[in-house]
Design brief:
Length: 525
């Protein structure tokens, strides 16, 4: 039996949909109905339904924002949206939320609703069956997996008898007859996990990716896949040639990555040592690879990376994240989440420019989350700090941090005032501007993001907002600049740099055009 919840501020429509559901003769149980956002959040939290049928045009917190909040509480929830309008950004955001359908109220028929609910039920059961299947496999393979993990521990115990350890491995189907091993590992990107699952699902996903890696490891060049820790799968490729090209290992990593994305919707990255080493040098190579884990932290986000030593990391930060922390306070004071994205992005820029040791950036991000938790009287998830410390890419750490900060921000202000005052059709555009406020955004960038023709977007936007897109972006940025300049010890140069302006002179020109004063005049007023 699948549970469903209805949300619509139009009570007659709510009753009509409830009536239709009762006529569908499907295995559905009504978990509740709500006519307002706050009531819906409370009801959803209490009942955690499997399916939510949501009106997009709710007052205050709209249906799309409400659905995002639902996904945070229950990532596997299925979504069907109802709306009075057909609009480009509605459908796009619905797709981003993986909605099962997007229905126009005036055109709603019993058959349409039956088809939409049926599709949602099928998808929900498919995902549940997938996780159940992996749970079942995990139960069957538990003893075998424990033995394989014990094999890895024995390999790392320098006091063990090597020949006996290899014999133990052969009994598990792990046979290394060739003289060399190419070491590597697969890392599950936690940022890709929390968008769809809960942190507590990570062990099950780790097992699932380990299964995929094991299934793909057979072939002309068999690769041993051993689960290591809680997010990594250690890889060992037995070869006869020390200088064997890494092509085969990369192809294998890419295959695991593609399967994990296809079946589990999570991202996996591969890392590997520079060359193969003698089998008996296992411990030294394992430790070296562990030491190099963070050395591609700021590099390109390639799916498979050779780990090399990097001795240039700065072990003590030259700048403190005080300004970024102040931005988090502004996010609360002004009810504007753009400050969160700005703070996290600026910290990353500082760390990348000064080449901080990854540990320093992770500590700064953790401090930001603790500060936001304190100011909102909320609680950050302990699992967040664990996975932040294990992140291997700067972008992974930044995404995890933004999500935790957004959760805390929503704890205090579920509906930003600025969103209430704006046309709902501009919110998708505002979201993109907020997330990229430190960049120069053109109408071409925005059109590409919305999958629209640039010329059409420019005409459409001017009709919608009553101004050119460039004016809209500049007004948006100058409103943030004014808030920043009100802060003590803030400089015009830093504000211009933070908001993505090429130089102070151009920033001053834009600022005066939209505020009536120069930045210096405003600062000294």
């Amino acid at each position: 039996m699948m549970t469903v919840m209805l949300i619509d501020d139009d009570v007659p429509m709510l009753d009509y949909v409830q009536h239709l559901l009762g006529q569908l003769d499907l295995e559905l149980e009504l978990a509740g109905a709500a006519s307002g956002s706050e009531q819906a959040l409370e009801l959803f939290h209490d009942s955690l339904p499997d399916l939510a049928i949501v009106d997009i045009g709710l007052p205050g917190m709209d249906g799309l924002e409400l659905a995002e909040a639902f996904r945070m509480m229950k990532p596997e929830v299925r979504l069907i949206f109802l709306t009075c309008y057909e609009d480009f950004h509605y459908s796009k955001r619905a797709i981003q939320l993986e909605a099962d359908d997007y229905l126009i109220k005036d055109e709603l028929t019993p058959q349409q609703l039956r088809d939409s609910v049926g599709k949602a039920m099928e998808r929900f059961r498919g995902r549940r069956e997938l996780l159940d299947r992996y749970s079942f496999q995990q139960a069957i393979e538990r003893n075998r997996e424990v033995l394989k993990q014990n094999f890895l521990k024995q390999l790392l115990s320098e006091g063990g008898e090597w020949d006996n350890i290899l014999l133990f491995g052969e009994r598990l189907g792990i046979s290394w007859k060739l003289p060399y091993l190419r070491h590597g590992f697969l890392h599950i990107d936690a940022a890709s996990v929390v968008g769809r699952y809960r942190y507590k699902d990570m062990p099950l996903l780790h097992f699932a990716v380990g299964n995929i890696a094991a299934e793909l490891s057979s072939g002309p060049a068999p690769i041993t896949a051993l689960m290591d820790g809680e997010t990594d799968i250690y890889l060992l490729w037995n070869t006869k040639d020390r200088s064997v090209p890494e092509d085969e290992l990369i192809r294998y990593m890419m295959s695991v990555r593609e399967k994990a994305e296809q079946y589990l919707k999570v991202s996996v990255r591969g890392f590997y040592a520079a060359e193969a080493v003698p089998v008996r040098q296992f411990v030294e190579t394992y430790k070296q690879l562990a030491e190099y884990r963070d050395h591609s932290f700021y590099g390109q986000g390639l799916p498979a990376v050779m780990l090399k030593p990097d001795r240039t990391f700065l072990q003590t930060a030259e700048s403190k994240p005080e300004k970024e922390k102040a931005m988090l306070s502004l996010a609360l004071e002004e009810d504007n989440a753009a400050w969160i994205d700005l703070a996290v992005s600026k910290l990353l820029q500082h760390a990348e420019t000064e080449h901080w040791a990854p540990r320093l950036l992770k500590e700064a991000y953790a401090d930001c989350v603790r500060k936001m938790a304190s100011e909102t009287h909320g609680t950050a998830e302990e699992a967040f700090f664990v996975h932040l410390s294990r992140s291997l890419r700067a972008e992974e750490a930044a995404h995890l941090t933004k999500r935790e900060l957004w959760n805390l921000w929503r704890h205090q202000a579920l509906t930003p005032i600025s969103d209430l005052e704006k046309d709902i059709r501009l919110q998708a555009i505002d979201d993109f501007l907020r997330e990229h406020v430190d960049r120069t955004i053109t109408s071409v960038d925005m059109a590409e993001h919305l999958h629209l023709n640039p010329s059409y977007f420019s005409r459409y936007f001017k009709r919608l907002a009553g101004m050119k897109f460039t004016d809209y972006v500049n007004r948006y940025k100058i409103s943030i600049a004014i808030s920043m300049l009100r802060q003590e010890n803030e400089t015009v140069e830093n504000v211009a740099y933070t908001l993505g302006f090429s130089d102070r002179a151009y920033f001053s020109k834009v600022f005066k055009k939209y505020s009536g004063k120069s930045p210096s005049e405003f600062k000294n007023a």
